[in-house]
Design goal:
Layout: E1 7-11, H1 15-25, E2 31-36, H2 44-48, E3 55-60, E4 70-79, H3 82-90, E5 96-98, E6 105-107, E7 114-119, E8 125-130, E9 135-139, H4 142-145
């Protein structure tokens, strides 16, 4: 995975905006990675997508939004399939971001504490989530970083 890009952080999107964001990535997506922080064994998404036979890996190195390795996380790597997008939406989207005067918070949907990363044919990150923070990471366009 190429993570050398800088990322814009996009907070506070609602379920409809999550679906629109994911749909915008769909034409370039070749691979989707699901990072389960709390295990994948009994997760509804794992069961829903088991027919896709993902590559399963326990423990991951640094990733977008995470500077250190996560030895207990489980990564499922899938080739693109529209069924993954449908399943994410059926679970209520990525997360629920709640803004409040006393402080913002994140409510998990039925997806739970699962980060989603969309990659293109060259394994470059198109977009990623840091679900427990309620963040979407989008690579800064190369033209936007030039001065």
């Amino acid at each position: 995975m190429s993570t050398k890009a800088e990322f814009d952080v996009i907070p506070a999107l609602d379920e409809a905006a999550h679906a629109k964001w994911m749909e915008s990535l769909r034409p370039k997506t070749a691979t989707i990675e699901l990072l389960f922080h709390d295990g994948d064994t009994d997760h509804p998404l794992t069961h829903e997508l088991e027919w896709l036979s993902p590559i399963r890996q326990e423990g991951v190195d640094a990733r977008p939004g995470y500077l250190r390795p996560q030895p207990t996380a489980v990564l499922l790597r899938y080739p693109y399939d529209r069924a993954i997008f449908r399943a994410l939406n059926e679970l209520g989207g990525l997360f629920e971001y709640v803004s409040a005067a006393t402080g913002d918070s994140v409510n998990f949907t039925r997806l739970g504490n699962v980060d989603v990363t969309f990659l293109d044919q060259s394994d470059t990150v198109l977009g990623s989530t840091v679900t427990h923070e309620g963040l979407i990471l989008s690579p800064v366009e190369a033209s936007a970083t030039r001065t």
